[in-house]
Amino acid sequence: MNIPDGLRYTREHEWVLIDGESARIGITDLAQDALGNIVHVQLPQLGQSVQSGSSVVEVESSKSVSDIYSPVSGSVVLVNESLAAHPEYVNTDPYGSGWLYEVQLSYDETLEGLLTADEYRALVG
Q1: Could you give the domains of the chain?
Q2: How many CB atoms are closer than 10 A to CB 9?
Q3: What is the mean pLDDT of residues 82-98?
Q4: What are 15's strand-pairing partners?
Q5: pLDDT for res 109
Q6: Cβ of 5: how many Cβ atoms within 10 Å?
Q7: Sheet holding 101-105, edge to edge
Q8: How far apart are CA 87 and CA 90, in angstroms?
Q9: Mean predicted lDDT score pLDDT of the chain
Q10: What is the pTM of this model?
């Protein structure tokens, strides 16, 4: 199981790459494996406000349809448009070309609830 250092994680198996005031979000290797072959990804709209803990993305796999929840609050500034034609990127490269969306963090956003790579490794053991 691949759990890169330098990212933050949630207990719901999303990853977050913090870059200044923005955050890129995706699902972990463990999550994509549990979902199975991903066949469609419904991404948020640019400019959409998202709240930490709210459903933002819908992922359809060969097994089921799953909601992906935002680990942070803010405004969507970028979405991974390549997933429309290549949803399998979430399976083959969840930390690279399979990222989902990017958020401009809200001014009062706190990242305290996010786990370090070591904490996430301990969680999924």
Answers
A1: 8-106 (2.40.50.100)
A2: 24
A3: 96
A4: 9, 26
A5: 66
A6: 8
A7: 8-9, 14-19, 22-27, 101-105, 74-79, 49-50
A8: 6
A9: 93
A10: 0.92
